[in-house]
Write a structure and sequence with these properties.
This protein is mainly alpha-helical. The chain contains eleven helices and four strands.
Amino acid sequence: MTIQLLNGIVYGGLLYLLAVGLVLIFGLREVVNFAHGALFMLGSYIGFTLAAAGHWWLGLLVSVVAMAAVGCLLDVLVFRSLRKHDHIVTVLITFGLLLILETVVTVTWGKAYLSYPVPKLLDGTVTIAGSPFPIYRLFIIAVSLLVAGGLAAWLRFTRMGLYVRAASTNPHVTSLQGIDVDRLSLVVVGLGTALAGLSGVVAGPLLTLSPTMGNYILIDSFIVVVIGGLGSFAGAFFAALLIGQIHNLGAIYLPWAATMLPFLLMIGILIWRPTGFAGSRT
């Protein structure tokens, strides 16, 4: 059981790394970014290219930096102009971006399934509760906790974090106080997209790379954001851990219903509390 719970935490950690980027972007831009899964996939492929050549850690760094740059471009060229449009327009445009990015990856890397190597430093297993457990999965848990702690500290103890929290609550009032919300959003969207690149590389060795790999995990990430509460970082963290356990234990004890359980939980949460665990928006 200990190993199964750890596997649930691993999947929950991956979900958090992807979902928190959605939370960041929605908080500042109020954009439901359907292209986020494709950015996760693109980051994974960028990291794979260098990892396959024996430079796994360089691939991680390049992927994060490249996706941060892509996020900044998206904010300036796309998201900034979408803030005055209806939400359905943003959904359609970001869905179009998803299709464009999948086509770019298909043309560049092909449709064949690819296997992502594990870095030699993290290869092997350790014994936990009498059973072997991959060191790489412990690495994923550590990365997720570091990102959660770093974001919490940044938002709680820095001036920019204070501005982000204020702009997430009411961007118009925040801008009236002299805060450049557009510049703030550039940083936040870049950070959120960089986290998509980070999660893509970290998840790579556990998944099979394909141009559609981001679609499946993006659905679970949206469920995490809805259950945790739109714009809530703490809610996303606990919701990701919960969905990770439901996903993992459901596959073992209720395999016939495993894919439905997260949706059923989301429906129940929305009926009981439409704002999610810790959100204030519907």
